[in-house]
């Protein structure tokens, strides 16, 4: 059974930093796309950052240069370092994973999701 558990959310002032963590268990495929997504009130869930099997990363334009996605394979943990936070970064942040040898699929094809962690910037 796959479990993804996010932590590290909270409330910060604009310009502050947070590091989100996602502890993964039960992932049995040899290759995954891993991602962070967010959903603000009244808006659709959208991707923030993705990390594919080859180590390639991609970011939402509005977070480039401020957010960094990374993973620690030994700890089975995915991270999202968020710096220079802005009020429009306020959202529930989710980590997700899906088996993939060929890069990262669209959001609706991600198979496994965490329950989310709230980030509030104000």
Protein architecture, described:
The chain is mainly β. 0% of the residues lie in helices and 50% in strands. It contains no helices and eleven strands. The chain has strands spanning 3-7, 10-12, 18-25, 32-39, 46-51, 57-59, 67-72, 77-82, 91-99, 112-113, 117-121. Strands 2, 4, 5, 6, 9, 10 and 11 form a seven-stranded mixed beta sheet that branches. Strand 4 (32-39) and strand 5 (46-51) form a beta hairpin. The chain is globular, with a radius of gyration of 13 Å. The protein starts with a strand and ends with a strand. The model has no long low-confidence stretch (mean pLDDT 95).
Furnish the topology, listing elements before pairings.
Elements: E1 3-7, E2 10-12, E3 18-25, E4 32-39, E5 46-51, E6 57-59, E7 67-72, E8 77-82, E9 91-99, E10 112-113, E11 117-121
Parallel strand pairs: 2-11
Antiparallel strand pairs: 1-3, 3-8, 4-5, 4-9, 5-6, 7-8, 9-10, 9-11
The count of helical stretches stands at 0
Beta content: over 45%
* Rg (C-alpha, Å): 13 Å
Report helical residue fraction: under 10%
Largest beta-sheet details: 7 strands, mixed
Structural class: mainly beta
The N- to C-terminal Cα distance equals: 37 Å
* DSSP strand count: 11
Q: In terms of per-residue confidence, which ranges show pLDDT below 50 for 5 or more consecutive residues?
A: none
Give the ordered list of helices and strands: EEEEEEEEEEE
How would you describe the shape? globular
Q: Mean pLDDT across all residues, rounded? A: 95
């Amino acid at each position: 059974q796959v479990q993804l558990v996010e932590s590290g959310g909270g409330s910060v002032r604009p310009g502050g930093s947070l590091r989100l963590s996602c502890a993964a268990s039960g992932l049995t495929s040899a290759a995954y796309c891993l991602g962070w997504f967010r959903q603000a009130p009244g808006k659709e869930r959208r991707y923030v950052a993705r990390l594919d099997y080859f180590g390639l990363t991609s970011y939402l334009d509005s977070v480039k240069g401020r957010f960094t996605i990374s993973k620690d394979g030994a700890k089975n943990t995915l991270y999202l370092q968020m710096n220079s936070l802005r009020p429009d970064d306020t959202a529930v942040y989710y980590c997700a994973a899906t088996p993939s040898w060929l890069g990262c699929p669209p959001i609706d094809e991600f198979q496994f999701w965490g329950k989310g962690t709230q980030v509030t910037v104000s």
